[in-house]
Amino acid sequence: AKAEGRNTYRFFEARMGAEVRERRMIEHDLRHAIARDELRLVFQPQKDIQNGTIIGFEALLRWRHPLRGEISPDVFIPIAEESDAIIDIGAWVLRTACREAATWTKPLMVAVNVSAVQLYNTNFVSEVHQILLDTGLPARRLELEITETALVRDFNRALAALRLIKTLGVHIAMDDFGTGYSSLSNLRAFPFDKIKIDGSFVRAVNSNGQSATIVRAVLGLGRGLGLPVLAEGVETSAEMQFLRDEECKEVQGYFVARPADIASFRSLTHGDVRD
Ligand code: C2E
Ligand code: CA
Ligand code: CA
Ligand code: CA
After folding, report:
1. pLDDT by residue (tens digit) across 193-220?
2. What ipTM, to 2 d.p.?
3. Which of 7, 10, 179, 267 sits in a 20 to 30 Å window from 257, CA-based?
4. How remote is the CA of residue 113 from the centroid of ligand 1, in Å?
5. For atom 27 of ligand 1, which residue has the closest CA?
């Protein structure tokens, strides 16, 4: 029986080994990523297509592993969330993004992604407050992007946290709208300032009638609720034209600019205020 157990173990070890080792490696190495200076932020502009101006930038996290090279946040963020490493990493992201935005001569927004684990941490709101004080960034220039999957785990706690964040004057955007389970009731229940339509709908508007219908409906919903809607993942001029025709106000995507080092956007962050 003992030998059999060992064989079973070996079977799983062989099958799962590589994947588990990869996860453990990421989990372990992430803990040192901040101290070893392996993390950085790139920024992607958000544009008002009705008046042609840049409204702000979304900060996106990048990790260059010393051996593996760039690892996608879609891979390491979920692992960071399970191991609670996201608490320190999220704080680093928030502080770094606010410190950067505070140096811009134009009063643009900076949007920062916040994971559920951060939101449910009891220190989160005071941490946001402290970071604003330390960096000197006015609260109204900070927007936290939160997915609804972050909210459904503990409705009351999430609502309490978001309400407190709002009292600071910080904005809140619902990220990846349309991909969650109950977008509409969450939209009503939580104090959002903006809806971000997920790129998967936007990128299908010209080839898929249902996506076009969904995007139109979300834009109508935003108008009805008095909430600005930003369309994410805009890649082509055809998508942009569709959004203009439908009177979408804000866009973000490769068609405007890919995420990049903030220095490459200097003419936007430090430009002549008249534009
Ligand atoms: P997200 O918040 O939905 O961010 C948008 C993602 O779409 C980014 O991927 C961005 O680079 C990409 N993107 C932007 N424009 C286009 C486009 O036109 N076409 C396509 N195909 N993609 C576009 P990225 O940077 O790889 O980030 C992936 C996800 O990782 C983010 O999705 C977000 O959920 C998470 N993430 C990134 N940075 C952070 C962070 O600092 N904290 C947390 N908690 N999550 C983060
Ligand atoms: Ca986002
Ligand atoms: Ca998104
Ligand atoms: Ca996403």
Report:
1. 999 999 999 998 888 888 999 999 999 9
2. 0.99
3. 179
4. 9
5. 73
